[in-house]
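If you are new to this repository, start here. Below is one unmodified record pulled from the training split, so you can see the exact layout before writing a loader.
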Amino acid sequence: MRYKSILLLLSAAALAILPSCHKKNEDTESDPYLEGTVSFSIPSFVKVGDELTVTPKGAVNPTTGNVGYYWFSSWNTARDTVKTENGSGDGSWTLTLPLATGTYTVTVGAFATDYINITTYKQFTVVDPSLEGSLKGMGYDSGSSMVDPRDNGVYYLTTAGDKVWMRNNLYYSGSGVSYEHSEAMDPIVGRLYNWNEAISACPEGWRLPTDEEFAAMTGASGDVLSGVAGSIMADGSFNGDKLWTFWPDVKITNTTKFSAVPIGYAIDQEGNMKYMGSGEYAAFWTADESGEESAKYRYIYVSKSDIFAGHGEKDSFRASVRCVKDSGE
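And here is the target side for that same chain:
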């Protein structure tokens, strides 16, 4: 899938922050470079058609302190000088994102008289959160749905035995963190929650499933749910790329309509979020505690046909959440 193949599974960072390069003005070879490293911030994933403002920083003119800035993008290569060397402002640039999904770049350049320009660019992925947008082939349109009254999040539903399950990951904005700090991905892959958040994150009338309920949904039992991973894996695509890479030992059927996507998990290291396992893992909290500081989660791995059990720290391990309720409620 695109967020795996383009940016190395995005397990470290979906946003490619590339080193500054240097360009010469019409000056001589003896001209010095501007000092510092010009940079700017942009989310790893952004929504089609959104308007975004980016602000440069880091370029230093040691002579006068004055720096000018220009910008251009991969979908519109016309150079836009937003600040002259002696002009006012901070060099911010407002751009309207493409209406087509895909991976794009934005470039900024800093310049000053008698100095060599310095530039940098960043890649990001444009996504479409609408039904059959970036995610295709999920089958969400074939069943019922509900709207979370707290933030108008839309969830697609399936019934397994006497339980109703959400088919897409919870993305309640009141808790949890966005994948790769990108809110545009919330309705596509859900947010990642620690257990302390997950246990109370579901809408009223819904709850975090017990491990017994999770196992019953698959029709298997035991600490390892043997041979049933394919029954909960989505046979869909993200921005045109398959969600789960083909492995001969795993037959993806999604017979449960659980529709798991391989968004991975995260480790919260004192506020520094480390996203891991994208394109390979899907992990889901259960309501079962496994100690004072840990709780049980279920996970699948791209090349294995079993569903495994893991135990994560309640406040630092972050996984996806699916909510469940009794079918009679």
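Two things worth knowing about this chain: The chain has four helices and 24 strands. The CA atoms of residues 125 and 219 lie 37 Å apart.
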